[in-house]
Specification:
Blueprint: E1 2-6, H1 16-28, E2 32-33, H2 43-47, H3 52-65, E3 68-72, H4 78-94, E4 97-103, H5 112-115, E5 122-127, H6 130-140
Parallel strand pairs: 1-2, 1-3, 3-4, 4-5
Length: about 140
């Protein structure tokens, strides 16, 4: 599957270690992850080489092309919220789905639009440990047939 892995770039990067673990498990299972560059420590510097319009257009192309949007939503991020809303908004027609993940220890800082999401195209999961998170990824988005 083609996966768009969403995580905070300009905001709170507290979920980046979880994002890296998610990415590793997805790739381990043979999925193509379009956004691995977002997990780099220097992502803001690398993205600065593009205009805002270029980032917007590129990301919309990737969001349209992905089978699943996996979002590590533990940090406050307008971008992640936009990406989730975009895919959920078109999921009925596109067949795409969303997997929303967040650190339970940060639940009081995560938007209720994330923690309360019960849209049929979305699976929401709060995790306590990276091991619990990777086990969920294995179960939900495991090996390709």
């Amino acid at each position: 599957m083609t996966i768009y892995l969403a995580c905070t770039v300009r905001g709170d990067r507290g979920g980046v270690l979880a994002g890296r673990a998610i990415c590793e498990r997805l790739q381990h299972h043979g999925h193509e992850v379009l956004t691995t560059h977002l997990l780099a420590d220097n992502v803001e510097t690398a993205e600065a080489a593009l205009t805002e319009r270029d980032v917007f257009r590129r990301d919309l192309e990737w969001l349209t092309a992905c089978d699943v949007l996996v979002a590590e939503a533990s940090g406050s991020s307008y971008g992640v919220g936009f990406e989730v809303g975009y895919v959920i908004g078109r999921a009925r027609a596109s067949g795409q789905r969303v997997v929303l993940l967040y650190d339970l220890a940060r639940r009081d800082k995560v938007s209720r639009l994330i923690t309360g999401n019960d849209d049929p195209a979305c699976t929401t999961f709060g995790y306590s440990t990276i091991d619990e998170l990777t086990a969920f990824i294995d179960q939900t988005l495991g090996p390709l047939g």
